[in-house]
Fold this sequence. Notes:
Layout: H1 3-7, E1 20-22, E2 29-31, H2 43-76, E3 83-88, E4 91-96, E5 99-109, E6 116-127, E7 131-138, E8 141-147, E9 151-154, H3 156-166, H4 175-185, E10 189-193, E11 198-202, E12 205-209, H5 217-227, H6 236-240, H7 251-263, H8 267-272, E13 279-283, H9 291-303, E14 308-309, H10 316-323, E15 329-333, H11 340-350, E16 355-360, E17 366-370, E18 374-379, H12 387-390, E19 393-397, H13 403-408, H14 410-418, H15 424-434, H16 439-456, H17 466-486, H18 496-513, H19 516-532, E20 534-539, E21 546-551, E22 558-563, E23 566-571, H20 573-582, H21 594-605, H22 609-612, E24 613-618, E25 621-632
Parallel strand pairs: 7-10, 13-18, 13-19, 14-15, 15-18
Antiparallel strand pairs: 1-2, 3-4, 4-5, 5-6, 7-8, 8-9, 11-12, 16-17, 20-21, 22-23, 23-25, 24-25
Amino acid sequence: MDQGRRGGTWPLNTQKKKQVQVNLITGERNAVKTRKTKMAKRPTEIKAEQKIKELAKAKRKKQFDETMDEEKRWIEKGNKPELLFDLSDDENIRLTSSGMQLIKERKRRNIKTGEIETDESYRHIFKGHFSPLKRLELDNEMFFEVETRQCFRGNVEDIINQLRKEGGVVNKARIADAVNCVLHGSDVETITGYSTYGVYENDARLHLCLNPYPITEIQVRVDRDIKNALKIPLNKTNVECWFSVPGFWDKYEVYPVLGLSIMAPFALILRDKGIIVPNIFHVSPESGLGKTESMKAYSQSLFGRRIISSDAINSDFRLADNLDSYGGLICVEEGESFNWGRFSPHLQLSAEQPLQDIRGKPNLGSRQYWSRAVLGFTGNYFPVKRKATLVRFVAVDFNRNKAKERRGKKKDLRLAMKKLKPIGWKIAEIEVNELDSSISNLIDQIEKHEYNLDEKYAGGFTDPRRSKSWAIIFEGLRLWGVVAKTYNVDWSPPTIDEFIETVVSPNETRAFENVEVPAEAFISWWESWCAKNKENITIGDDYNKKTVKEVKGKNDIWREACAENYSGHVITKAVLSLYEQDNKHKVFLPINTLTDLGKGIAALYGLNMSKIYKDWKFGRKTLKGVFIPLEECSIGMESK
């Protein structure tokens, strides 16, 4: 018999017997709830558990030995040995050809011998190939280049996400610790550089980056497009064809993009010094004038950067990503479809500051976006009306009277553009050498042009910052003149007086008067609408009735009124909706709000904005409306 049963030293570890209580009167048997007591384990059970632990430990040791044997064979083939990184006092990360392992040490005292023994446990964190290649300091940020299933660049968060996508992460809780430990502890080459093409400042010296380390997807695509462009030599043949192209347009149309495009690689360093580098917009409702061809020539053909559609910039992230893609001009087609109401503040910021955005990422990291690029829009109309945005744009309204003439030269233009080679980067290098690689020399040149423009431009600029934008364009034209002279090409840049007369004055007049043009278009439409939309109305009492013709909606959506020295009509938002319906094919310039219309009327007639755009009485109703002057009054008055 078992000793445990006889002596009671080891209680049986059996199921608890059900106890019952018998009612002596009724004879019923009722179950009695008893307290369950913890039963001590028998020696045989303790030995079995110890044996299971020993077998599990032996299995882990065998797996580890097999992994090490595989590593030894891998090393014998000439590959790098395993690497060990200290994670903490008692934890290490082992990097092998098969992945990353966590080695944890545990110290304990042997009860029998009294000695301190060290026990190691091994746990896989990532299974798969992982090899740090380079440490990259790009644009004041730390990135790494690693090799997994593919060669990959990114910061620590990007690399962790990539490992998760590949499916090799087996310990999600410790993968971040392991990757950080390996990346920062690896003895790899450290490279200082830039993530994309452009001109940068390094120790107060200009540096043209033509060998970038692209990080984002769009930077990788740009690098792929531009690499072939760098192989084009700078010789007389390749230079000469560029000076045959401007002759297809008027100087005021083509010189702004000609000068601004070649200065676009310097945009980031100039914005870093607080200098506005404007964007540009080629506009005309007429097709066949070459507004897109000229923009495409000085973006894609000059630098190798492909044109994009405004539909591709459909979010804040897309806009920030494109502006950060490279230092050069980007042609954006269908500019009127761009979401100006949403993105105008971003464009204003990016035109004058080097860091245009810092965007968070799902893993709580962040990414900086720089203002490297200059955007060149093309469209049927220029929707910008706010002066704050206008200051940061060069708006070129193409000559509509030359549509027929240019359509006849379209074939010649196409042949000329086929000969263009992407030599923009070589010309930017000439500018860096001309300036002796000094950022101060570049700023001095621009300030000298700015002073001359301010002194000689009659009437002065609408905004003092405009002269600096035109100074940047003039410096670009001067650089084209240096290239032409170097390669004996018959072309010379304009003098400052010619530049003001043929380029600055026509564009400044059109740009800042453009706010008035939509108002003129609306007044013309309103007079036409009133003439076409009349209805017969009976007035008078039963004894004196007569029928007259009145414009529809009188005293409902519009009313007659006088303001200052004019008589006219007050129109409401309902009338503005009718205008937009008739203007669905963009025959007229768009007017988005009553406020925009009020500003245009005020500028056009020199009226006080508060007098024409306000609350007006429509019978018992009070509605927001804009006064439209139609003819002058002899006595100034105002209808309430």
